[in-house]
Amino acid sequence: MEDYSFNPSTRYSIVISGILLIAIGLLILFNYSSSLVFILFLVGIFSFVHGAEHLFMGIQFRHFMNASQHYLLRGVFGIILGFIFVIYSYSNDPKFIRMIFAFWMLIVSINGLIEAASLPFITGGVHGLTVLVSVIGLFFAAILFSSFGLSGLMITVIIGNYAILLGINLLCFLLKVGD
Q1: I want to staple 167 with a disulfide (CB 3.0 to 4.6 A). Which of 22, 98, 140, 157 is the partner?
Q2: pLDDT per position in the chain (179 positions), as tens?
Q3: Quick check: pTM over 0.85?
Q4: Where are the alpha helices (DSSP H) in the chain?
């Protein structure tokens, strides 16, 4: 049996990512008057932290897990996307902001489905939750890609709910496999 336990730095990064996502989601939902630019900045910071977490996990599991390259790629992508979010967070183009969020949701959801299929220690409710959150993310991404008339409020509701779901999924994942 292979050991899939996490080292302390990986545990802390998962906890920080989960709590940060839930906090961002709640902030977005309960302070929807915040500008989309501020939300883009927050998601950029999260994406950077989450990318670093995946780099740590990819390095930690590289010797015995087929998905380690997936984690490394997702980590590099997350860090790059975080920088893009932060750099372009001052863009006032609502179409660009909507598209960057849709692209982020699409990539995170596809990665979630790959992760659910490739990690043997994700079983039971956590596996189902990962698949569910990924499918919901694909649905939200499709809405953002196809609906040009979405109001700022609807965009924030979609992003806030998705962030909370991702945060809960991360914390459940840690509870399931983090022992």
Answers
A1: 22
A2: 444 555 666 677 777 778 888 888 888 778 766 666 777 787 788 788 778 877 877 777 666 656 567 778 778 888 888 888 888 777 667 677 778 778 888 888 888 887 777 765 555 666 777 788 888 889 888 888 887 666 667 777 887 888 888 888 878 877 776 55
A3: no
A4: 8-30, 36-60, 68-87, 94-118, 124-146, 152-177
